[in-house]
Write a structure and sequence with these properties.
outer membrane lipoprotein receptor (LolB), chain A, 2 domains, 19% helix, globular
């Protein structure tokens, strides 16, 4: 019925006899297939043992990054909800746009629209692969562009639980990695990996990241301060796929375990491939933001 498989099994049996293996014609075809796979190719268990935890962690990070490449640019709306430890809230609304940069980190721009006292405030980020990111904050009340010093990137972004560092796109080369384990996360199966910032001025000593194995979407991230204490937890929810390829979370929540405060980012209206220009992501352009 399956002559090709039968011939392959016969050749495998004959080869086994030639090197002194006992007869295996009585084995089930599935067992024969697995046996022959290990005879001609490295077994999966051997490959898994040959890959270190560090190599596996890096591979997962590279695969996740590769799935997000090629988007060109995108824009989105965002509502930021700040909650103090007593549950009191304040709300801010802003616009966000990103330009993909081949061979380097992406460029991004946040622009605040509400409330009135922060309207026009803008954060421009030029992420980089092998050098520290560049960030500038435009303050309309002062009509001044302020550079964010690398040593201050761990500071709060506009009073939220997100730091300036958190608001920059992460590049694979900025971290070293270590695979920890597989475990369920809700109804999904997730890998758990550690990320260690290469930047000595990072506000974090490490991050632990949960990603589902099917789409490599991040669902949870625990962040540890420079002393190794669990400082914050970032969770992701309401993922949707855009442009038939790119997954984006509709909601991100950063909880600060030291202060008891939290910040929720609610994303809307993702639009991809808008033909954004480099000139929109420059320091002079910050003063023209409306």
């Amino acid at each position: 019925m399956f002559p090709e498989r039968e011939n392959a099994e016969t050749r495998f049996v004959d080869r086994g006899r030639a090197i002194g293996f006992p007869s295996i014609r009585g084995l089930a075809p599935s067992v024969l297939f697995l046996a022959s796979a290990c005879f001609y190719l490295p077994c999966a268990s051997f490959v898994a043992q040959a890959e270190t935890a560090e190599e596996k962690g890096l591979r997962i990070a590279r695969e996740a990054s590769a799935r997000n490449e090629g988007f060109g640019d995108f824009t989105a709306g965002m509502t930021m909800v700040l909650r103090d430890r007593h549950g009191r809230e304040s709300v801010r609304r802003m616009r966000f746009k990103v330009l993909e940069v081949r061979g380097d980190g992406d460029k991004s721009l946040f622009v605040f629209d509400r409330p009135r006292d922060v309207k026009g405030t803008a954060l421009l980020t030029h992420a980089h692969v092998n050098t520290p990111d560049d960030q500038w904050l435009y303050l309309p009340a002062l009509k001044r562009v302020k550079r964010i010093n690398a040593a201050r990137r761990s500071g709060s972004f506009m009073g939220s639980e997100f730091s300036y560092e958190d608001m920059s796109s992460s590049e694979v080369e900025e971290y070293t990695y270590k695979y920890l384990r597989d475990e369920p996360c809700g109804e999904l199966a997730c890998t758990v990996t550690e990320q260690f910032p290469r930047d000595k001025k990072s506000g974090y000593s490490r991050k632990v990241v949960w990603q589902d194995k099917s789409e490599l979407r991040t669902w949870k991230m625990t962040l540890y301060d420079r002393k190794g204490s669990h400082l914050k937890t970032l969770t992701f929810a309401n993922y949707r796929k855009y442009a038939e390829r790119y997954w984006r979370a509709g909601e991100q929540t950063m909880a600060n375990h030291l202060t008891g405060a939290s910040t929720v980012l609610k994303w809307t209206d993702f639009q991809f491939r808008n033909n954004l220009q480099e000139s929109e992501f420059t320091r002079p352009a910050l003063r023209r933001v409306r």
